Amino acid sequence: MQKGIQGVICDWAGTMVDFGSLSPVAAFQKAFERYDFDVSLDEIRRFMGMLKIDQTRAILAQAKERFHEQFGHYPTEKEVKDIYEYFETALFESLIQYSKPIRGAVSFATTLKERKIKLGSTTGYTNAMMEIVTQEAKKEGYAPDCYVTPSKHLPGRPHPFMIYKNAIELEIYPLSSIVKIGDTISDIQEGIHAGCWSIGVAMSGNEVGLLEKELDRLPKDVFEEKRLVAYKRLYDAGAHCVVDGIWDMLPLLEVINTKIINGEKPCVIDFIKA
Q1: Order of strands across the sheet that contains 118-121
Q2: 11 in active site
Q3: Domains of the chain
């Protein structure tokens, strides 16, 4: 009989820490304000999950006509690097504040360990950024077996290479025995491209972008509207299934585990939370 789930690979901000994925958004806002160029929250969040300098390029590329109108030329690599430097400064000032595990993250990791399922992770943060995040998260009880960051020699999302490196480090094969969990479109694409089960978390991360207490205060109809939009965006990106947050993942893992044991490959899952 085939083994079930051998590994789970989670994103960080918006999935396991930093409810609402607020830290990188706030840093980008400060960076563009410092450069005196207005970008919207939607423009920032559209490319969340990528390596941050790649995200800077993507934001400027989509706003290139406005940039040209304001500055008289199209954005170049110099502007990318200048704004990214502002971003890094702002982010490093706030990372400690935004590294607290999301509700359910620690218990989820503990359960995986008890079941001898390996826990890896990927991110859009650099290694220097992750040294801060992992240290702070560990103080709160969250410490995956492995984390992989993008670099000049390891392209980030939506490419699958960080998942491949996790699989090598954790000695997991086949990749169809891995579940990838994340809150962004690029997370979903990363998992799909790697041949994993790719699961979206809708309410704790980038697609909604609110603190948990802010979510709790929303009128029911507004909450449901935001939920519907977030679910649709993640499903449209190719997610095999979407849940509200990491706190809902364990029952879904049971469903996926059964499918893997039965020889099924990653596919769309009809899952209704009990």
Answers
A1: 118-121, 7-10, 178-182, 197-201, 241-243
A2: yes
A3: 7-21+99-261 (3.40.50.1000), 22-97 (1.10.150.240)
